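Box 3.1. Reading complex inputs
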Amino acid sequence: MHNLVGDLRCPIDARRLTMAAKNPSCIRLSTIIIAGLEPNAVTQQVFGLPNNSEQSAFALRHGTTFERVQCRNSAARLLQALQQAGILDKEDGRVLDLGQLPNSNPSSSVARIRAAQPRIAETERALRAKAGRSVDAPNVILQPHLRLPLGDGEEPSVRPDLLVARSGEARYRVGEIKSAPALRHLTDEQDIANAAAQCGVYAVALAASLRRLGLSAAVPSEAVLVLRKPGSFNGVATLQRIDRDIEAARRVLARHPDTLHAITEILGPDQTLDTAANVLRLPAKFSGNCRSFCSLWQVCRKESRSHSAPAVLGADAEELLGPLGNTQRARELMAGAIPSNELERDIQRRLAVYRKELGEAAG
Amino acid sequence: MNELKVVARLLAQERGEAVRLTRERSYPLSDQPMVLVPIVMAGASPSLFALGIGDGIKPCHVHVCAEPRNRDQQYETLSRAASDMERFLHVWETDPEVMPQLITSGADASRLCLVTIHRMTYAQDLRIRLVGRRLHWLDRVFEQPESTALLDMPRAICELFATGQDECADAHLGAVLEWLKPADGQIYDRVLRVEDSPVSTATDPRLDNGKLIPLLQAVGQAEEKGDSSSSNRRRAEIKRIFHEEVGRRYDLIRQALSVCRRFPGSAGADYIQHQDRARYERNLAYVANPENLLATGLSSNAATSTFLARELRAEHLEGLMLRSVSGLRSVARLSATFSSARRWIEASATAAARPSSIIRSAPLRSGSRFGAVIISRSWMTSRLVFVCWISRLTSRARRWSRSSSPAAKPNQDSRRSVTSSNWQSRSLPPNALLERCGLLASVCR
């Protein structure tokens, strides 16, 4: 298990950052992500719970095959999807595939950082060419590398699936390739929301790269999502607004140095996250949605139950009973306990009204 | 915010068992529902691994496709499923009293069923296509408040009971049913155990990685070698796995259905049933002619019209369903004005069904900002519906604004006070509401 202080500078990837953005008030999750730990590893190794984030090999294989099919033969299928959607014109066919550079899958983190350097340089060269409206600037950059400033001097790199721009445009837009099926109004909203959240992080990184290069830092507020056409490996490209996702990513990144400071204050110097006690000292914010993205949800739910937190009864309970802090007190008030302040009196009155109504409704 | 449910959740948490929310069921349940249990290959949605079909009482038929990535095998499975579905459609078509209804194990399953129906609607095989065309209308009523033709069981049961857990946990039908069992002090352990078995449209990744992938590979290898007996053995094993998986989900639906049937249907349920039956018959009449085409999606005008109509229906249904929640509230909401609005909605729906131009005036209450509007096409109907809705919102907001202002006389009549409490419960401050009405009115104009 990692030492927290030593691991504060671990690289952060977009997927994990979006995880933190889904529950920004959860210090426990932010800490684990910033420390470069996998929430699933903490769940298994620190709390001894079974692996609950195992992925089906069917899904993994399907996803990688789809991405590979989109990128092979000079991204012929991808270009076709982008042109069919009107995102690129017919003559926009220049592709820069940085996945083709040697040493694309390094095993160690040091090798990864070293391998990223030429890719970052290539990406920045393409950004400059595009800003200068050079005719040689690629229309599609596959596997570009962008620096993501964290606000504390550290700049890990993130890797969008693609950057796309027409020949006449001076700016690229970020894009993601997802093997989720495009089913019109029946497309899974969660798939789209996750992809858009990732694109938000990439857009922040793209803006930072442009700023560093002395170019206009405005990036398009729409991202390109390439989904799978059901029953085939052809792509369906679409533009998705990501303004809110960009803002969410910015907020999470802006909080990064504060979070580091808060962690050190909570845990004290030289403390590590390899004990359950230390992890539990970090304040968590459980909500029902946590189960859809965080492996620690069972730990936090158990803890919330033991503290009688209103959140275990859902968002409505949190809204109504949040000021009381726990459901135990709410039950006491409902049973006729004397309220200690105006707030409790108000909640007691409301609970009494609704309990009476419930009695009438349910008989 | 639903405070009634919060109180019920508090009580359920204390008791360790679910708490009843109502005496009546606010949605209809068909005597002959078609219960569908789809399971897809992870990552390859909407390719079906299995589709269970039953009536919610007798055991279900399970149609398994051992290799969902093979299109021929997929359509062969759909063809078998179509003949099963045909039995239900026959009952719905011959008995006008039976409500056409499709029941699933969750919102995800409902979505997947619609995708499957969509595939069937445009299939090459005529038998599949005929079934798909007759069910295609479900796509238009999905998530509409005025329809329960496509019902997911967790949502249905959570309208009747409150559990002592959050709403995301309520999406697991098995967990909800555990809360319905008598308290034994072990509720959280029991819930944890059932949560381990997925009831969604995908199989457990451990099952995929541990059993299904090796079996599928073995089938492929056996077929390459021409070893049919080995291939058949593996296929039978895959079938057995999916019979178990579908059966588990189907049993949960059966249990949930029997609980829901114990509640008598409310006035709202009767209304929904009538509406769904009417929609089904309209669609049936339309698709009877094979020349009539079915659009794969909605045009922007039609989408706007659907959205607006749906908003008004939500209001309307809310009024009807409050009868189940509180008699006191229903007195306020089901006022004479409201009843006349209901009659008008029904009349305008009939008008919309007729192609000719009809001039009709809406029975708006005095002081309303909008009057008669000409209806000529269905989108105009929706526009009229929208106008009426804005008018109602405006007058309500004004009334509540008056009643909640410090200068207002307290509780001039019970109707006003209860109505204002309804608005409060929906967390809409008077100014915000008036602003919303103004905005909508300007859009409409």
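In summary: Residues 273 and 279 of chain A are 6 Å apart (CA to CA).
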